[in-house]
Amino acid sequence: MAEPARPAAPAEPAGPAEPVLEVTGLVKHYPLTQGILFKRQIGAVRAVDGVDFVLGRGETLGVVGESGCGKSTVAKLLCHLERPTAGTIRYRGEDVTRLSGRALKAVRRNIQMVFQDPYTSLNPRMTVGDIIGEPYEIHPEAAPKGDRRRKVRELLDVVGLNPEYVNRYPHQFSGGQRQRIGIARGLALRPEVIVADEPVSALDVSVQAQVINLLERLQREFELSYVFIAHDLSIVRHISDRVAVMYLGRIVETGTDTEIYDHPTHPYTQALLSAVPAPDPEARAHRDRIILTGDVPSPAAVPSGCRFRTRCFKARERCALEVPELAVPAEFRYAEGPVAHDSACLFAAERQNVR
Ligand SMILES: Nc1ncnc2c1ncn2[C@@H]1O[C@H](COP(=O)(O)OP(=O)(O)OP(=O)(O)O)[C@@H](O)[C@H]1O
Ligand code: SF4
Ligand SMILES: [Mg+2]
């Protein structure tokens, strides 16, 4: 499938965009129970444990972090596939966690999800036309008047697939083409927000670039806002206006892509970035690789104080006693420039040689 050449990374936004989603104090705890007949709760998996962010119109927020840090749980909460334990998700000012019935259905339409695995997320027994048109069965109020089949063909065309493929089955497509089908289904109801959970992780590198280009083109065409989840830091930098780094259920650092990638102040972000292979041999020779020791603790037994302290190369006694808040650290509060961004560390400091 021919795609235009990879465009340059988008310029950073001039100012805060109009908020589409505002997430405050978002929590999802899964109860841990014991006993067969008489179940009693003995603890909780704190998958998401107090997440705050704002997503602006037409903006892409990248979310990164190691496996198990709660990225997919955040995605499911945003798309109402899971109910939060606490917190609010405001869509255009309205708290959608309190909605139910018809009001919830109307909001759900505007926030769609694109899944990681194009092989298992499409029903193999349905034709591509039925898969893409399925949202119209669930939301007939938002279905196009008249010929739905024609609309489905248009969607195939929009995502760069031949409209004549409408009667084919998922197994007749490559991985990249299947992800395009998943994206077409996500677009069917003309949503405002797309939550993409590792949308290119299962694809070959060459195909990844095509799907990213497609997402960028669709964002411009339809003024979409994206929450883009991935563990590949380079891809996240390419597509994101702002980035949130997650660790054990919380955002530990957030800012524009320049702030996070060129001026990280949280030791966890610095460690993640130091592990990204540097293409430039000069940069490679001069940088310190930060090796994280130990495993990520279980979200059912989160460390006291700073939850990163058991693996942090800078941890001190105070880190076990105080929970660092996600805010501009005191030492940078009056600083000018990209170092002054939110970082949940009691000893936040710039470290230049992580790139
Ligand atoms: N339904 C559930 N019941 C209990 N625990 C769960 C459930 N869903 C997720 N978890 C746990 O919550 C934590 C966060 O899971 P999540 O899938 O959100 O992580 P992730 O960041 O998406 O990881 P990955 O990068 O591997 O996809 C994990 O410890 C996971 O085992
Ligand atoms: S608060 Fe302490 S343990 Fe946590 S990231 Fe900062 S230095 Fe490390
Ligand atoms: Mg996940």
TrEMBL record:
Residue ranges constituting the ABC transporter domain according to the UniProt record: 21-273
Keywords, in A-Z order: ATP-binding, Nucleotide-binding, Transport
UniProt superkingdom: Bacteria
Xref: SMART domains: AAA
Family: Belongs to the ABC transporter superfamily.
Name of the protein in question: Dipeptide ABC transporter ATP-binding protein
InterPro entries: AAA+_ATPase, ABC_transp_ATP-bind, ABC_transporter-like_ATP-bd, ABC_transporter-like_CS, Oligopep_ABC_C, P-loop_NTPase
Matches recorded under NCBIfam families: oligo_HPY, PRK11308.1
A GO molecular-function annotation: ATP binding
CDD domains linked to this entry: ABC_NikE_OppD_transporters
